[in-house]
Amino acid sequence: MLLKKIELVNFRNYEQLSLSFAPGFNFITGDNAQGKSNLLESIVYLSTGKSYRGAHDVHLLRWQGDFFLIRGKIESNGRDFLLEVSYSPEKGKVLKINGVEKKKGREVWGLLKTVWFSPEDLNLVKGSPEGRREFLNQLLTQVSPLYAKSLQEYNKLVGQKNNLLKRKEDGFAGEKTSLLEVYNLQLVQIGSLILKSRLDCLEKLIPLARRFYRELSGGEILSARYHSTVEFATSSLEEIKRGFSKGLVEKKHEEEKKGYALVGPHRDELEIFVNGKSLRLFGSQGQQRTCVLALKLAAMEYFQLTGGEFPVLVLDEVTSELDESRREYLLRTIRGKSQVFVAGVDLSFLESFPWEKGEVSFFTVEDGKVKEAR
Ligand SMILES: Nc1ncnc2c1ncn2[C@@H]1O[C@H](COP(=O)(O)OP(=O)(O)O)[C@@H](O)[C@H]1O
Ligand SMILES: [Mg+2]
Fold this sequence. Notes:
Helix content is 44%, strand content 24%. It has helices at 36-48, 57-60, 123-126, 129-143, 145-166, 173-217, 237-250, 252-258, 279-282, 285-307, 318-321, 324-334, and strands spanning 2-11, 14-20, 25-29, 68-76, 79-88, 92-97, 100-102, 114-117, 222-227, 269-274, 277-278, 312-316, 340-344, 360-366, 369-373. The chain has a 6-stranded antiparallel β-sheet. Helix 4 (129-143) packs across helix 5, helix 5 (145-166) packs across helix 6 and helix 6 (173-217) packs across helix 10. It starts with a strand and ends with a strand. Magnesium ion binds at residues 36-37, 316-317.
């Protein structure tokens, strides 16, 4: 997977930008608040349709602009194509592949595969379960169109069910009950697929993360447990469906009392341990950072395992927070696999690395303008 070129119009503080990238490492330096993260954000947006900093589309629009555009020339499995997203408050997002408009986001998101690591991600281990579910969702959405579709439908159903649960019965108790049953039947079908995909993914992902964590930490053992709100004895799809249905029956009254859906993958938790102790509760900052890095590297390998191609790796500021040995490890691990984008205020430590010709490009950013520095 290669992002060969990017063009931006009115995206954040970029009025107009056109840049070609190296197939290996692309280092982006500059003072604070010049546009380094904005550039990386545009790359991830082209991949997922979302800001990895959680910004709304309208905030990505340059203050003086009435639309923004991101266009990328991408090479995937030896074939080039142009991917284009534009946005305006009136029209919303307009998506194009090779100039041809696509109606569904699903046809576009995930074509450019990315794994990113930004300071916000340090919350992944420490923060609420939602962040860890989101990590799995983002990964699986990019890897599997079926997962992307299921997740979209599932979230919509959960929203509809929650609305229904919140409604006062006022003489439509019978109707409410039968409508809930309809929702629940669909939730079981789709939710079980989501759950099963996550379990299958974790089976591959966690051993990979464990290896990276062990090597990064000098011997500590990472493990993880997926706590599901659905109970099942074996992780076959049939068994999950059975457990899901059973759970919904058991929690019926509690769901009605609380007014929201309690059972299903939208309420699950991934717990991570180091040497058997919960990382969220007991991990040091260094251990948490190492864990996020190990998970991201594992995600990178997971893409390759499932799709045969390494994703584009986007690293915002994180290299400067790693000590020298971890930094070396990181560079060695990703070198020759993924195309990488690294942003940082000071990346001078990279200049002395024995790069091969054509492997790296250095860019400097100042006030929304990028120069290639050689
Ligand atoms: N929608 C926008 N329109 C114009 N400028 C913006 C917009 N959003 C953010 N900026 C500007 O972008 C700069 C921050 O860019 P960023 O890429 O986060 O910086 P850094 O180089 O430190 O990573 C700030 O100067 C901010 O004012
Ligand atoms: Mg930044």
